[in-house]
Known about the structure:
Blueprint: H1 2-17, H2 24-55, H3 75-106, H4 111-114, H5 116-128, H6 132-157, H7 163-170
Amino acid sequence: IGTTIVAIETDFTVPIFNWSFWNGTFYLIFKLCMDIGGIALLIGLLMVVYQRTIRRPRRLNYRRPDREPGEYDRTPFKVGDWMFLGALIFLVVTGFMLEGASLAYTTPEWAPQWQPVGWLIAKMYLLAGDPGAAGFLVFHHVIWWIHALSAQIFVASIPGLDPRSQRRRRG
C-alpha cells in the first residue's frame, strides 16, 4: 500500500499535474498508519506461527478425512503455507529495516512521534555504529532493492503456492 501511494505521486501526480501530496499532515498520518499497520500485521503473523508450531490445533493438521494416512502427501500444502507466511514476515521486517535506514540518515525531529518503529530501528542501527549519511544511503538502497524485488517475487509466486494449481499445469 505504501509503495503504491508513493508510486502514484512519483509517477503520476507530480509529472502530470506538478502536484505533490506527499507532505504535511497527510504524510505524517500516513507514516503513523503504516507503522501501526505493519506492527499489527507482524503480530498477527507471529500469532499464526505460534498457532501452527506450539498450539497445533487438530483442525490445522492437514489430515484428509476421506483418506487413510499414507494414501496422500500433504507436504506441498505445508511447504506452500510456510513459504507464504515466511515471505510476509520477511516483507514486513525488510519494510521496517528500510524505514529505519532512511530515518538513520535523515533524522527528522518528528520521527519518534510519527514513525515510532522506524525510529527505534534507526536508533539500533546508530548504536551498532554510524557509517555516516553516505553509508546509510547505500544500506537504504540495498534494503530497498531486496524489499522491492522480494515483494514482486512474492506477488508473482502466489498462484504457484497452491499445490492444486501445480497439478492442473502438469496434466
